């Protein structure tokens, strides 16, 4: 996938964009901080905070409109226009750096933020249009890896540029060359034509922002994913912002150690992103998200205790810091916080892309970007209050983040039942009862379908849910099972009840809630019913699902032989068979 034309030019383009953003922004901040811009009329601290605000402001103003544009235009053409705009901005940026025009640099930083605000929605909404479903998680993993490695390289490169003898000239050439290469690579992105007539758009920054968020909130699961991603950026922004002072105050370390900490964190996120591809088994899998949540808290808490108590009298460099074994636990914790972050964020982006309708993905990503920006601003305010009036330390702030993450995890488990369900089904199907599946592509990826199987117990129904990334609605009778799995299934999955009723002869039967079944079919949901209930209520079910695809599901425990003795393996073989309307197996051509 990575070397195909549908992905590689796009990947190079987005990486160069993130790299150039960070080179330009950090060069500007470093030049100002080290007073290489003469006659600065503003206080240095005010200038730095103003620069940060100007870069993030466009995400509030333009993200909603950017999402609408990205959903109503050829995405490849939009990327090419945005990269051409970047070249123009960087031409002016190069001139501003050479002439040391601080005012022009600030204006251009705002324009770079605007370009990034328009690029974000199209960057993520392009992936589900050019990648197959089995490639979506891998594509997002590469994007997250590329983004954070680019941030790392851009930050380090900016420091090296400013430290050189010809900083202004080298910085000007670098940002201009990166912009030009990015534009050139964008020209190789294949066209992505729309499958519908585009809408007429109006630019309404404030009402558009509110409307964008309201639209995403209509789909509860997508909104929860947006909140979760925004929380990650709250965490990430706090860690990245505090690294310099953390190294100086708690580690007695210099700038090279700050770069080391940033490298460990960024590389960790890249590793975690790639682990997602392996652990998700080529499907959009929310079940791995709790591992990331747990890791963020556990390693964040251990980071607090890993910081050495005794502060040396000298300042550590990267080499002297690495040379002491007492720092390895701290470095490992920070690396694993990054790995956990990668495991946390990649499934969420893939989830949003897979759950939004065609023509609305970019708008969902735009709403996500707005919330990300809001959470990062709140993170900065919280850090200022905690470290200022409340008198907390940076190390205590990191500990508070780790405990707050546990609260957020609990919130997500409560408010997003599908997360609970996917986590348990993931553990069941991957570790406790590994599944081997024949005809894995039989279950439809969209639209309603009828799934018929012999299984009725909670454990088997959870295993059946693991066969599809889409939620399955279970058509079943009320159960008297009181086990953990039964309670989890009843509280987390969608149900259509078969209500008990008594016949004249005293025999007990049941009655399907036809209105609920009709609504589920109308909503395009997958419906599972046991063979026993299907035989009893076939006329009612077929009346509502006469045109829907049908799939037979059979779970079979595999026999194994150990030292001449037969036993039942934990592994379960699943047979999926597509059926016709007469419930006979379809013949393959």
TrEMBL record:
Keywords: Cell membrane, Membrane, Transmembrane, Transmembrane helix, Transport
Pfam families: MFS_1 (PF07690)
Segments traversing the membrane: 46-70, 82-98, 104-122, 142-164, 170-197, 222-241, 253-276, 288-307, 327-352, 364-388, 394-414
Membrane topology: Multi-pass membrane protein
Matches recorded under InterPro entries: MFS, MFS_trans_sf
Localisation per UniProt entry: Cell membrane
Stated name of the protein: MFS transporter
Annotated organism of origin: Shewanella eurypsychrophilus
């Amino acid at each position: 996938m990575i070397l195909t034309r549908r992905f590689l030019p796009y990947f190079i383009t987005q990486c160069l964009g993130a790299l150039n953003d960070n080179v330009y922004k950090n060069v500007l901040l470093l030049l100002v901080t080290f007073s290489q811009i003469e006659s600065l009329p503003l206080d240095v601290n005010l200038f730095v905070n103003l620069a940060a605000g100007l870069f993030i402001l466009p995400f509030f103003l333009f993200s909603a409109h950017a999402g609408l544009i990205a959903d109503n235009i050829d995405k490849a053409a939009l990327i090419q226009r945005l990269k051409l705009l970047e070249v123009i901005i960087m031409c002016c940026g190069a001139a501003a750096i050479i002439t040391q025009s601080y005012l022009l640099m600030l204006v251009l930083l705002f324009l770079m933020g605007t370009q990034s605000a328009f690029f974000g929605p199209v960057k993520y909404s392009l992936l589900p249009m050019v990648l197959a479903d089995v490639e979506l998680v891998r594509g997002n993993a590469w994007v997250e890896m590329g983004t954070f490695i680019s941030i790392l390289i851009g930050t380090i490169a900016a420091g090296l540029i400013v430290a050189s003898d010809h900083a202004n000239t080298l910085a000007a050439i670098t940002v201009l060359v990166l912009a030009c290469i990015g534009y050139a690579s964008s020209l190789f992105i294949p066209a992505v034509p729309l499958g519908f007539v585009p809408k007429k758009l109006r630019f309404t920054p404030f009402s558009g922002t509110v409307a964008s968020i309201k639209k995403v909130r209509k789909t509860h699961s997508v909104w929860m994913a947006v909140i979760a991603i925004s929380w990650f950026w709250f965490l990430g922004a706090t860690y990245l912002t505090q690294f310099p002072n953390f190294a100086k105050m708690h580690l007695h370390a210099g700038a090279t150690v700050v770069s080391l900490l940033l490298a460990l964190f960024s590389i960790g996120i890249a590793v975690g992103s790639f682990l997602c591809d392996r652990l998700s088994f080529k499907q959009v899998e929310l079940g791995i998200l709790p591992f990331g949540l747990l890791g963020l808290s556990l390693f964040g808490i251990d980071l607090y205790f890993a910081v050495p108590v005794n502060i040396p009298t000298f300042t550590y460099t990267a080499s002297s810091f690495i040379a002491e074994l007492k720092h390895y636990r701290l470095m490992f914790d920070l690396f694993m916080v990054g790995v956990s972050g990668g495991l946390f964020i990649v499934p969420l982006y893939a989830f949003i892309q897979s759950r939004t309708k065609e023509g609305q993905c970019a708008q969902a990503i735009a709403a996500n970007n707005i919330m990300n920006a809001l959470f990062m601003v709140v993170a900065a305010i919280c850090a200022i209050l905690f470290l200022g009036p409340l008198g907390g330390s940076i190390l205590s702030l990191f500990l508070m983040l780790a405990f707050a993450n546990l609260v957020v995890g609990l919130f997500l488990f409560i408010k997003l039942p599908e997360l609970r369900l996917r986590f348990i089904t993931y553990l069941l199907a991957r570790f406790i009862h590994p599944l081997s599946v024949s005809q894995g592509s039989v279950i439809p990826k969209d639209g309603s379908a009828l799934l018929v199987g012999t299984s009725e117990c909670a454990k088997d129904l959870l295993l059946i849910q693991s066969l599809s990334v889409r939620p399955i609605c279970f058509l079943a009778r009320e159960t008297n099972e009181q086990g953990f799995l039964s309670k989890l299934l009843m509280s987390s999955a969608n149900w259509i009840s078969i209500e008990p009723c008594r016949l004249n002869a005293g025999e007990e039967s049941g009655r399907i809630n036809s209105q609920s079944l009709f609504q589920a079919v109308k909503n395009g949901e997958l419906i599972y019913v046991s063979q026993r209930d299907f035989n009893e209520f076939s006329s009612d079910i077929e009346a509502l699902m006469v045109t829907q695809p049908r799939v037979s599901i059979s779970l079979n425990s595999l026999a194994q032989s150990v030292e001449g003795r037969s036993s039942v393996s934990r592994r379960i073989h699943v047979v999926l068979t597509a059926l016709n309307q007469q419930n006979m197996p379809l013949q393959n051509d």
